[in-house]
Design brief:
- It is built from 13 helices and 11 strands.
- It starts with a helix and ends with a helix.
- Strands 3, 6, 7, 8, 9, 10 and 11 form a 7-stranded mixed beta sheet that branches. Strands 1-2 form a two-stranded antiparallel ribbon.
- With 319 residues, the chain is α/β, with parallel strands linked by helices.
- A hairpin with a 5-residue loop joins strand 4 (70-71) and strand 5 (77-78).
- The radius of gyration is 21 Å and the shape is flat.
- Helix 5 crosses helix 12, helix 6 packs across helix 12 (278-288) and helix 12 runs antiparallel to helix 13.
Length: 319
């Protein structure tokens, strides 16, 4: 982006969102259409269980979820907390958990951090939560609302699309639980860039207008409007407060979920080094399937090393 455009973006958008699209000091694109991890909760279920306060830490959440889980007619425990089984989702929630506990998938300088004590402790904590039936990694974890028996769901803001406007009042959103060093959340997003060409300057002007300028007839900022209309999150709080009508009945839930952006880590921190957070979800899945934690983490490290090497070779080929 041109320097003045990049500076304007850095002053307005969440810093981590812009940093994720910055390479060698240059901002490459405008982040758009974000989804971020967070905690959904069902007010009706919690009221029935006599729960007034939302857990603020991982330990509190897992302990409470285990305590209020139910037992089915077949004698099987039905966890009160759920999350999706897809590796892309589980992996991103796990990376957020690693960071909140003081660990990470990669260090800032690109070294693999899965064998760090903090990372291993976080992985073990998630595995133990499943094993003691505090957490269910299943498709039911992707639906939270009046027709759900879940009290909590570790998920994404787009889950709001599964909630109809009549029952959204029974659903609340909160920060992803805090670990030993505080809160964290992982967000992923699309981006809008300008390709090289003879009309590049005009294209940059148009993109800047799409990003910042309100329409003289509607008062809407095009990129923000399209984000809100699709129930995705924009990248600055002002965008939400200026256009509450586009979230309608979902405004309260979306506003609360957007608070996670204050602690957000961009998935681009890992993707731009050739590494997908999915790998951490795979570690958890392998351990739950019976593999030793040491072997599961070692397999992940080998995969990450290969991915980083392939990525670096690809970048060299483009230079």
């Amino acid at each position: 982006l041109p320097p003045h455009f990049a500076e304007r973006l850095q002053q307005t958008f969440f810093p981590e969102a812009v940093a994720g699209l910055t390479w060698d000091g240059a901002v490459l694109a405008v982040p758009a259409w974000a989804n971020i991890t967070g905690l959904w909760y069902n007010r009706q279920v919690l009221q029935e269980k006599g729960i007034a306060d939302i857990p603020s830490t991982w330990d509190e959440l897992f302990d409470l979820a285990q305590r209020i889980s139910t037992v089915g007619s077949d004698g099987v425990v039905i966890p009160a907390l759920g999350t999706l089984p897809e590796m892309w989702s589980l992996g991103r929630i796990m990376v957020a958990m690693l960071v909140s506990e003081g660990g990470d998938l990669l260090t800032p300088d690109g070294r693999i951090a899965l064998f760090a004590e903090e990372s291993r402790n976080a992985i073990n904590k998630m595995v133990e939560a499943v094993q003691r039936r505090a957490l269910d990694i299943d498709w039911r974890g992707g639906r939270i609302g009046i027709d759900s028996d879940l009290a909590f769901s570790l998920g994404w803001n787009y889950f709001v699309r599964t909630i109809d406007t009549q029952t959204v009042k029974d659903v609340g959103a909160a920060l992803l639980p805090a670990g030993a060093v505080g809160h964290s959340a992982l967000f992923y997003h699309h981006a809008v860039a300008v390709a090289k060409g003879s009309n590049q300057e005009a294209a940059f002007d148009f993109l800047e207008w799409l990003t910042f300028e309100a329409s003289p007839t509607t008062g809407l900022v095009p990129l923000v409007h399209s984000t809100a209309a699709s129930l995705n999150l924009p990248f600055h709080m002002d965008a939400v407060t200026r256009f509450p009508e586009y979230y309608g009945e979902y405004s309260d839930a979306m506003f609360d979920f957007m608070r996670n952006m204050d602690y957000g880590v961009s998935v681009m921190r890992y993707i731009r080094q050739g590494v997908s957070p999915d790998v951490v979800g795979t570690v958890v899945s392998k351990i739950l399937d019976g593999m030793s934690p040491l072997q599961a983490i070692n397999d992940a490290i080998i995969e990450v090393q290969i991915n980083i090497q392939e990525w670096q070779e690809m970048l060299k080929g483009r230079m």
